[in-house]
Amino acid sequence: MAPINNQQKHGYRWALFAAALCAVVVVLGAFTRLVDAGLGCPDWPGCYGHLTWPSSDEHVARAEALFPEAPVEHDKTWPEMVHRYFAGTLGLVILGITLATWRFAARAPAMNYPRWHATGLLALVVVQAAFGMWTVTLKLWPQVVTAHLLGGFATFSLLWLLALRLQNRPWSLSSNSYRRLVGLRPLIWLALMVVVMQIALGGWTSSNYAALACTDFPTCHGEWWPDTDFVRGFNFAQSVGPNYLGGLLEGDARTSIHLTHRIGALVVTLVLLVLLYRLWQVPLSHARRLAGVIGLLLVVQITLGITNVLASLPLSVAVAHNGVGALLLLSLVTLAHRSYSAIRI
User: Fold this and answer.
1) Rounded Cα–Cα distance for residues 65 and 319 (Å)
2) CA-CA 20 to 30 A from 51: which of 136, 155, 210, 253?
3) Cα separation of 171 and 158, whole Å?
């Protein structure tokens, strides 16, 4: 058997840095959305025509003359622009990583650098920038806001996966452990699918301001199944044009979204518990440690979700709920990568 090449590839530290920076962008995006600062700047990419945001009385007066329908609110302008600058910096870092990956691939073809992975990431960031613009120009249209959130999570996951690929440290497994881990692949894909769907439901819940449609737990409005309106709640053909700040849906429609998100959480919990049970049976310390991480993140995420309801959506808890959701997704991406890159010895 040929010797296994576990040499770390060039660009690993930059990919790790980009993933950490993307985590900051994801959290800033959640913070911006939760403090209702998504329209803190009515234009794009600047803010009231400024590179940062209007601060002096003169600049504020000029900004309000240019945008009379959008008075300057300082507590909303700075979160929006800080998020944009961090996101722009992340885009430049990913551009640099992509160019470097192609250069390294040309110099060392045998190292099999993931150049198309990096290129896809760069394309995704360009699309994300467009969604960031549409979030403002379409005035928080829920479809765009949810897609923008999913794009952020996808960018985070793909950056982390790129770092894992450049790290080049596959698990070396016995035949028994390898067989058990490979046998988990369909279940891992199912877990990834339900977690992504739950993240999408979370985005839809947030963009339609349905997080507090139910203020008690485990019941909703004191009932196990209150009045709902799923047709309006999941009407993806909502018209473009109105200002969606604060939401436009009636109570029953928001309740249907909230309940669906709760049901999704139950499905995710059941699927992950089965996965963790199966993963724990793999006779490998690495697999069991990863199972412990996934289980801990699941418990924390459930706790944060319940706290959001019972404590009326505290800002710190709501932001943490977004962040832990991203980490839970990353833990499953890690498991999927390990299952496909593992080497049988």
Assistant:
1) 34
2) 155
3) 20
Q: 153-162 burial by CB neighbour count: b if 16+ within 10 A, else e?
A: bbbbbbbbbb
Q: Phi and psi at residue 283, in whole multiples of 5°?
A: -75, 70
Contacts 24+ apart (CB under 8 A), 45-51: 45/84, 45/88, 45/133, 47/77, 47/80, 47/81, 48/72, 48/77
Residue type, 151: G
DSSP label of 7: P
The rounded distance, in Å, linking the Cα atoms of 66 and 70 is 9
239-277 pLDDT, tens digit per residue, is 877 888 888 999 999 999 999 999 999 999 999 999 999
Q: Which helix (H) or strand (E) holds 111?
A: none
Residue with tokens 């995704």: 124
Rg for the chain (alpha carbons), in Å?
A: 22
Beta-bridge partners for 173: 344
pLDDT in tens, 17-75: 999 999 999 999 999 999 999 889 999 988 998 888 888 888 899 888 988 888 999 89
Q: Give catalytic residue positions.
A: 80
Q: Which amino acid is at 326?
A: A
What is the SS3 assignment for 246?
A: coil
Please name the helix (run of DSSP H) or strand (run of DSSP E) that holds residue 343, with its range, or none: strand 343-344
Task: Give the helix/strand (H/E) hosting 344.
Answer: strand 343-344
d(CA 114, CA 164) in angstroms, rounded, equals 11
> Around Cβ 232, how many Cβ atoms within 10 Å?
16
Closest of 71, 76, 64 to residue 39, by C-alpha: 76
Q: What is the rounded distance in angstroms from the CA atom of residue 206 to the CA atom of residue 254? A: 10
Element (H, E) at 140: none
Distance of CA 165 to the CA centre of its chain: 20
How many angstroms separate the first and last alpha carbons of the chain? 10
